[in-house]
Amino acid sequence: MYHRNLAQLNPYELHKHLINEYILNKPGATKLLQRDNSRDKTDHDVIRENHRFLWDNETVDSWEKQLSKKYYDKLFKEYCIADLSRYKENKVAMRWRVEKEVVVGKGQFICGAKSCEERNNLRSWEVNFGYLEQAEKKNALVKLRLCLKCSDKLNYHSKKREVKRLKKRERKSKTSISDKLPDSLTTNSEGGSSSEQNNIDAARGENIQHEDPVGMKSKKKLAKKNLMNIWKIFYFK
Questions:
Q1: Which of 21-25, 38-42, 135-139, 194-198 is least confident?
Q2: What is the pTM of this model?
Q3: Rounded distance, CA 227 to CA 182, Å?
Q4: ∠ at Cα 67 (112, 235), nearest 5°?
Q5: Helix (H, G, I), strand (E, B), or coil: what is residue 191?
Q6: pLDDT tens, position by position, 174-209
Q7: Which of 51, 188, 213, 228 has its CA 20 to 30 A from that of 122?
């Protein structure tokens, strides 16, 4: 039932649900929702102190909590925040999102440009992000979610790769299920359809005899084997 309910949510509703699920089960995490004005930090401080996020190794004792934690962890290194103030000089600064930005959806459901709060017509761009982590230089392909105006700034000098989400109907295979069934399911063991064989027997006036137990057992094994073939088709296509 829980899985079915999640499938009915749109992406933003699913985001809020999973974030809330974790926040409510993380000790002391409700403080994240309160703004602390006493120690505001610059972008430099944020990059230096918060570009790595580790959860406490607490026990995650339910499927719902495991799903929320996995989703939460993934978000920190999937989307970035960009400073596009010097885009004409081909200089775009990026940083990882801080925890509060992950919670409210900044950079995912709100434009990822540092000073933009646009929520409509966001587009996803794949950008190579070079950064230092524990004195080690690393590179990662990350997503920048930008509005139309900020997208133009990002692509001012060179067009970046746009990431488009496939629609559900495009993900489905065009081949129908019947095309993938083994031939042995559509014909009987004698090579013809069962209805055709019955018509032939009736025309000849022959009595259709019941199969012996050994024959029935063989057919059951064949049917079981055919069912296994069907599952292989669906799981390994």
A1: 194-198
A2: 0.48
A3: 9
A4: 105
A5: coil
A6: 544 445 545 544 444 444 445 555 554 554 544 444
A7: 51
Whether residue 129 contacts residue 140, with contact meaning beta carbons closer than 8 Å, is answered with yes
Phi, psi dihedrals of residue 234, rounded to the nearest 5°:
-75, -35
Which three-class secondary structure state does DSSP give residue 210? coil
Helix or strand (DSSP H, E) at 11: helix 11-25
Record the tokens describing residue 200, joined without a space: 């032939």
Domains of the chain, by residue range, sit at: 2-166, 177-235
The label of the residue with tokens 């009915």 reads 8
Span 53-93, pLDDT tens digits: 334 445 455 666 676 667 666 777 788 999 999 999 999 99
Residue 23 contacts residue 103 (beta carbons within 8 Å): yes
pLDDT of residue 10: 84
**Cβ neighbours of 107 (radius 10 Å):** 27
Spatial separation of the C-alpha atoms in residues 31 and 99, rounded to whole Å: 11
Q: Which is higher by pLDDT, 89 or 221?
A: 89
Contacts of residue 31, Cβ cutoff 8 Å, sequence gap at least 6: none
Helix (H, G, I), strand (E, B) or coil at 31: helix
Tokens of 229: 């073939």
DSSP state of 160: P
Token pair of 143 as six digits: 């997503």
* Closest C-alpha among 215, 43, 41, 74 to residue 143: 74
